[in-house]
Design goal:
By secondary structure, this protein is α/β, with parallel strands linked by helices. The chain has a domain of 131 residues: Nucleotidyltransferase, domain 5. The protein is 36% helix and 15% strand. It has 6 helices and 5 strands, in the order ββαβααββααα. A 5-stranded mixed sheet has the order 3-2-1-4-5, with helices on both faces. Helix 1 crosses helix 4. 40% of the residues are buried.
Length: 200
């Protein structure tokens, strides 16, 4: 059973990211403020829900949340500041775009760069513990998947509609054959260890 809040007397936003381990595409983050009585039987860590459930939940969350926002950092930004800092920056952008200012942030994971003026708590596996973090994980995941499906249209050889940019065997093979795009993270190990990739 997900907990509705950490502090009953504070307006809390849950934050989570999606796409941290991908070879291509942006990292997405979401921030969500839910009503204290929000409940949905499917709401959970996005990795424990089906695609159909996630897409249905996205509609419910976006309609019923007190506030929500999604933000992203593109591959060149990830290469410049590294994926951990990019994840933090995407969460900061999402919080900044909320239509209400929360009094407290619930962050999925064990590390975070403090957001100016708003205290936070890091919660390991928080997307399976707090409803607002779970909701943020759903929005980050569904918005990112949708974006990668759009990129797939221009670059079908990488099968991003299927792998969403993650390091599958087929994705790595496509990189080996076709090289990299502007959407690939050139600071990542794009090919298996020992293989050299010519960066264009």
């Amino acid at each position: 059973m997900l907990l509705p809040f950490m502090h009953e007397d504070r307006l809390e936003a849950g934050c989570d990211e999606a796409g941290r381990g991908c070879l291509a595409g942006p990292v997405f983050a979401a921030a969500v403020i839910l009503p204290s009585d929000f409940y949905h039987p499917w709401l959970n860590d996005s990795k424990k829900t089906s695609e159909k459930q996630r897409n249905s939940l996205r509609e419910v969350i976006e309609q019923e949340a007190l506030a929500w926002a999604v933000a992203r950092l593109e591959a060149p930004e990830i290469d410049e500041i590294n994926i951990l800092n990019a994840s933090f920056a995407a969460m900061h952008r999402a919080v900044a775009n909320l239509q209400q200012t929360p009094a407290f942030l619930l962050i999925d994971g064990n590390r975070f760069k403090s957001y100016p003026g708003i205290p936070h708590a890091c919660v390991v596996q928080g997307d399976g513990k707090y409803a607002a973090i779970a909701a943020a994980s759903i929005l980050a995941k569904t918005h990112r998947d949708e974006y990668m499906e759009q990129l797939h249209v221009a670059h079908p050889e990488y099968a991003w509609a299927v792998n969403k940019g993650y390091p599958t065997k087929a994705h790595r093979e496509a990189i080996r054959i076709y090289g990299v795009t502007e959407y690939h993270r050139k600071s990542f190990q794009l090919l298996p260890s020992g293989e050299q990739l010519e960066l264009f």
